[in-house]
Design goal:
Number of domains of chain B: 1
Distance between the termini of chain B: 33 Å
Largest sheet of chain B: none
Order of helices and strands of chain A: EHEEEEHEEEEHHHHHEEHHHHHHEEEHHH
Number of helices of chain B: 12
Oligomer: heterodimer
Radius of gyration of chain B: 19 Å
Strand content of chain A: 15-25%
Radius of gyration of chain A: 22 Å
Order of helices and strands of chain B: HHHHHHHHHHHH
Structural class of chain A: alpha+beta
Chain lengths: 506, 315
Amino acid sequence: MFRLRPPLEFAPTRAELAGVVGRLLGDGWRLALVAGHEDVPDHPGAPDGFRIVYAFLRPGGCQGRGERAEVTVAVPRDDAWFPSVAALSYPAGRFEREVRDLFGVPVRDHPQPYRLVRHGNWPAGHYPLRSDADPAPAFTGNDPFPFLEVEGEGVYEIPVGPIHAGLIEPGHFRFTVVGESILQLRFRLWFMHRGIEGLFRGRTPDEGVALAERISGDTAVGHALAYVQAVEDASGVVVGERALLVRALLLELERLYNHVGDLGAIVNDVGYGIAKNHCDALKEELLRHNRRVTGHRLLRGGVLVGGARLLAEPDVGLVADVARRADEVARVALAHPIVANRVVDQAILPAAAARSYGTLGYVARASGVAVDARAEHPAIDLGPAFTVVTEDAGDVRARFEVRRREIEVSARLVADLAGRVAGASSEPPIPARPVAGAGLGVVEGWRGTIVHRVELDAAGRVSRLKAVDPSFFNWPAIGVALTDTIVPDFPLCNKSFNLSYAGNDL
Amino acid sequence: MNAAVLAVLAAQVVVALALTPLLIGVMRQVRTRLEGRAGPGVWQPWRDTVKLLAKEPLRAAGSSWVLWLAPAALVVSSVMVVALIPLIATPALPLLPADLFVVVSVLLVGTVALALLGLESGTAFGGMGSSRHMMIAALVEPTVLIAVYALSIPAATSSLGTIIASRLTDVTAVMTPAGLLAIVALFVVVLAECGRLPVDNPATHLELTMVHEAMILESGGRDLAWLELGSWLRLTALLGLVVNLAAPWGIATEPTPAGLAVGVAAFSVKLLAAGAGIAAAEVFLAKLRLFRVPELLAGSFVLAFLAVTASYLVA
């Protein structure tokens, strides 16, 4: 199979898996994703059974472009199980549950062997990514989904969602509370499970781009870019410099409009509505600018397999002006004594927890963990305009501040990249070659590092796509940050994380 | 005399009912405009109320008579409060005086009705809202009593009409330290009682942060219309009391048609101006952490207490 950037590859047996994974994690590798695969033989002698692929990333490597490693475990169909490595890595445990729920391959010795993706109404024995799965089963199941119950004097539960009072994605939260103090938060996601990964199957690489843009609506560029990078890695397409520059530019434009919107949304949750109105107006300017640049307010259509497209030159002056005004609004908001009192020391995520949960993006950087794929796995050198922004406090203010400062960095990058794009000669997009292969795409989306792993069949069509939004890693960290928090402060904490439901549920 | 006083009370109710949705509309529109948005106009609460009144209420299966009694109790208590508090004229019925303690007790009926409604809805939000509401109410009621008590000392009566009338005749009484302290204390607790910033955010959609809204989350149709109207009337009544204590000018002391006309006009202007002022201030405020609300209310209680002390020292 073809690889543009060949990773270190390991193929341990099931018994050896934990040893290999443990060694990699000890050597500074980070688990990026775990993807299940089902190989159905189309000719005699072809592989039959399941494969579990563990992809790892590490900074450094050749020219500082980052290193990749893949561990593949074969699981025979007639003895289908795989061992858990949840004891070594918390996110691995969640990935394993996802694989089990989607492929029906049992996990052995899992410390939390509960359902993750599966909802109680899925019919028994329905595993949607299996080749023989019914594409539209009747929802006849009625399994309970028990939450850990806490008993004691004055303990009560608050169930919230999945339908909320505002325009929010669906998720069910179960608070166990004494008075106003949160004892425990458990949540149930995957209400937004649309079977996106299954929908990729059989598409040509070009047809997959529009789908990738819709994995999470606010991360159109991030997911599309991770997808096309994976496809290019799998089919051996080397993209020209201008396309790389345009892609980096689009990624920053996406970061800008989302961060500006978030600044307003966070302070709106403490009732400081005027800051939200200002930020919404600024965000609207950016959305209209997006439309001029790519033809779509959410920047859809800018990223292509083997290339990138701009309809118009970005207005560097407008972006810089919006960034400056957003910075001013953010400073005014944080200078407000009541706002400051609400966000400082609120919902602290300690650095140790941020690391052990494998958090990504601004959530990790606000806790002092400097993970950023733009620095660790760069597609192009961003030059001196780029710095990784970190804060140490890990509270709501830190997550707010990381966004504020990243807006400044992104505006600088937009100005720099726009100049470099103008100087680069344009080239037509290079189509993916119809070869079988596997590839990995790593992109720093605005929420954090997005990783896609794609496999192409002999006809060059997508046979398997595994997408991981940073939200998948960050969701469990909310529970940690809520220690010592009171119920009415949860929405503020949640907004400071602002995780994607769609990107997590797929 | 009694017939004239009854006419005054009826006029107060009519004026309050007519003015209340407009007050809310003005407050929302002022805030909207100051935040740079267009807004639906000052008549939107009127339109909403009329719309909701025409809709049938839906009540959960298994819910009890509390769900229909509570809105009625709230509205009746609020109507009684606007009738009793001297809004446009000071004369009072001899058997049913606008007594400070009577007014606070009637207010409490509405408070309890709302809390019971929140509990009856059977959701965790309702119970949560009720518990927060009662916490705030427990801190608000003593401050209201003490603040008005401070103002009643110079007048030597607990009848609100007489207090306001005496402040009208003696302008210097309005500007005493005790009077100012009491008015400020009263103003803070009115904000808390009526669910305004920085205690509660009336514009939020976040269920977990709500106080007042959490209790009425499960109500709809006519029930919701009465609950909203009842709560808004409390704002009219309490804010009306504060503005009439702070600036009694224009209020009618005799139930004559001309006096009442002046009273209605003066009250409308004072109330809407105060509402617009609160809305403008809210633009610059954020919501306090829930556990800091008691500190704010304790502060206002201290002000009220100082006012009482100052009244005795002066008197």
